Amino acid sequence: MENALVTEIANAAARLVVEEGLEWGPAKRRAIKQLGLPSRTALPDNDLVEDAVREYIGLFCADTQPLELRALRELALVWMQRMQAFRPYLGGAVWHGTATRLSDIHIALFCDDPKSAEIALIDHRIRYEPGNVTGLHGEVIDVLSMISHCRALNEDIGVHLLIYDLDDLRGALRPDARGRVPRGDMAAVRRLLQQAPSSEPMR
């Protein structure tokens, strides 16, 4: 597959990620369709798509995205504090810094009892939808999804709590292909917020 075509697919996917809030997998598949390519066309890897997303944000969203990202991290921290008994770690675009107001929040919980987090939501009368997603090692894991209103953005944001066994925690913090920690705890999120611009002007 020619590098130019790979880059074209990545750029098309990046636009869908930023403008429509798609996850990277669906964005890559939609990009293939939009470009009129065969369904079996090889997809660009996530690193290439991430680079394209960052470039797109820098070109078209540089004046708005930093404040949107901060607002999402603030909301993520609220949920991490609510679920702090289950060792919450923020991942995905909100952690890596590529999120916009259309992005969802993904928080991994590491539980002694996989049902304990769900019971906590029930006890606090928080409405959620149970589901399944692919986990760290390709296994199927439970996910608890809900909608949370972000006042700073005046948007309803999807929040997804991914349920892992406590034993999965060590593997979850191994550096990725670029040497970055793939997710962060509450202290790490607070450090990111200290470095970022305030979201207060957004109303």
Any chance you could write out the topology, listing elements then pairs?
Blueprint: H1 3-20, H2 24-34, H3 46-60, H4 65-82, E1 89-91, H5 92-96, E2 105-111, H6 116-123, E3 129-134, E4 140-150, E5 155-165, H7 169-172, H8 186-195
Parallel strand pairs: 2-5
Antiparallel strand pairs: 1-2, 3-4, 4-5
Helix pairs in contact: 1-2, 1-3, 4-8
What name does CATH use for the topology of the largest domain?
A: Beta Polymerase, domain 2
Q: Give the CATH class of the largest domain.
A: Alpha Beta
The shape, in one word, is: globular
Run of helices and strands: HHHHEHEHEEEHH
Number of helices: 8
Q: Give the helix level as a range of percent.
A: 40-55%
Q: How many structural domains are formed by the residues?
A: 2
In CATH, the architecture of the largest domain is 2-Layer Sandwich
Mean pLDDT: 92
Walk across the major sheet and give the strand order: 1-2-5-4-3
Report the end-to-end length measured between terminal Cα atoms: 46 Å
Radius of gyration: 17 Å
Description:
- It is a single chain.
- The chain is α+β, with helices and mostly antiparallel strands and 203 residues long.
- It folds into two domains: 3-60; 65-195, Beta Polymerase, domain 2 (2-Layer Sandwich).
- The protein contains eight helices and five strands.
- A five-stranded mixed sheet has the order 1-2-5-4-3.
- Strand 3 and strand 4 (140-150) form a beta hairpin.
- Helix 4 (65-82) packs antiparallel against helix 8 (186-195).
- It is globular.
- It starts with a helix and ends in an 8-residue tail after the last helix.
- The relative contact order is 0.14.
- Mean pLDDT is 92; it is low at 199-203.
